[in-house]
């Protein structure tokens, strides 16, 4: 899968900090995101345990990306549809009917059956997650992928951690990542700590614009950075071994995406940009001579209607201003 490449050597203020930041380019995976690993592990484990065979069915409920709500499970659908097809299985994705049309079209192009449902509370039997779970439970040779609670997610990322270890030759001091399901930070942190208990692991926490400005939030997840931000302890996140956290804002993520594009030619999504913000914060804490690793979860092309749409950003007061090599936008 994806390689780890030098992302940037940061300049802190006037003095150059001799410090290396490496990023695993997960947007290079076949389905375009870090979730390919999770889909592959979920389906492979189900095959090995005899719960799924060719001709079977994989189901998942994925949220839409409407309004300012987080789209936590957005990418998993694409990866599941793609990997299901590769294993000769069918894929069923349930999603709210206010999700972007292109999202359903993409899944259908990958051979999945998509059911769009009226948005209702998670306690309602017709909630998209409950529909996906029930669809798998009521037929043979079918699994509910359940990326939030299925520990195959975190096990997939033990391999991500192993790759990071191999690709850096074990020469890294810290790993930084946001958490959605928690699978990435759990798997990578367990592996890296097993190899070297001294590796520092920092989790990113989104800090919405209003909160950063001391104003009350309309909703606790009122941020445009998609995929990270967790409001419950999932079975995957439970496994994580974390030393600390950094707070990041949408404004920092937006500026960082432009920085990466102009500085490194990397076109990344919002959570990837946020992870890069976290590496700069960690760099300032750790100081010279360290190596910090993160993951670039997906590419910018999946975010053209929001995070990479100037009109949309303007509505949020987030018009990017970044120019040159200056990283002072990272607070
Ligand atoms: N980035 C994106 C775009 C995501 O969709 C997600 C979660 N679905 C994450 C990052 C977070 O990764 P994890 O679920 O492994 O915590």
TrEMBL record:
The keyword rRNA-binding does not apply. The keyword Amino-acid biosynthesis applies. InterPro entries: Cys_Synth/Cystath_Beta-Synth (IPR050214), P-phosphate_BS (IPR001216), TrpB-like_PALP (IPR001926), TrpB-like_PALP_sf (IPR036052). One of its GO terms (molecular function) is transferase activity. Residues 19-73, 76-298 form the Tryptophan synthase beta chain-like PALP domain. Keywords: Amino-acid biosynthesis, Cysteine biosynthesis, Pyridoxal phosphate, Transferase. One of its GO terms (biological process) is cysteine biosynthetic process from serine. It holds the Pfam family PALP. Its cofactor is pyridoxal 5'-phosphate. Belongs to the cysteine synthase/cystathionine beta-synthase family. PANTHER family: CYSTATHIONINE BETA-SYNTHASE. This is Cysteine synthase A.
């Amino acid at each position: 899968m994806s390689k780890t490449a030098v992302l940037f050597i940061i300049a802190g203020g006037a003095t150059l900090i001799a410090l290396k930041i490496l990023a695993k380019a997960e947007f290079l995976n076949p389905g375009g995101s870090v979730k390919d690993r999770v889909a592959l592990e979920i389906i492979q484990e189900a095959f090995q345990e005899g719960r799924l065979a060719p001709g079977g069915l994989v189901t998942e409920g994925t949220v839409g990306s409407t309004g300012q709500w987080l789209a936590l499970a957005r990418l998993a659908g694409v990866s599941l549809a793609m990997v299901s097809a590769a294993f000769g299985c069918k894929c069923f994705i349930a999603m709210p009917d206010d999700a972007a049309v292109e999202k359903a079209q993409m899944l259908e192009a990958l051979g999945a059956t998509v059911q769009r449902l009226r948005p209702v509370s998670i306690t309602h039997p017709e909630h998209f997650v409950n529909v996906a779970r029930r669809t798998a439970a009521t037929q043979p040779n079918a699994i509910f992928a359940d990326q939030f609670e299925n520990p195959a997610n975190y096990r997939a990322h033990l391999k991500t951690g192993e790759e990071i270890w191999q690709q850096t030759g074990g020469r890294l001091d810290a790993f930084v990542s946001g958490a959605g399901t928690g699978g990435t930070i759990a798997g990578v942190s367990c592996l890296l700590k097993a190899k070297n208990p001294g590796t520092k692991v920092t989790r990113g926490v989104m800090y919405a614009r209003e909160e950063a400005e001391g104003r009350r939030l309309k909703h606790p997840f009122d941020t445009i950075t998609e995929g990270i931000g967790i409001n419950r302890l999932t079975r995957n996140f439970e496994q994580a071994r974390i030393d600390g956290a950094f707070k990041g804002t949408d404004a920092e993520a937006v500026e960082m995406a432009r920085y990466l594009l102009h500085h490194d030619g990397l076109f990344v999504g919002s959570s990837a940009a946020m992870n890069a913000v976290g590496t700069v914060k960690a760099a300032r804490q750790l100081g010279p001579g360290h190596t910090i690793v993160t993951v670039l979860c997906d590419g910018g092309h999946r975010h053209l209607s929001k995070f990479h749409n100037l009109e949309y950003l303007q509505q949020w007061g987030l018009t990017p201003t970044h120019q040159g090599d200056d990283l002072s936008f990272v607070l």
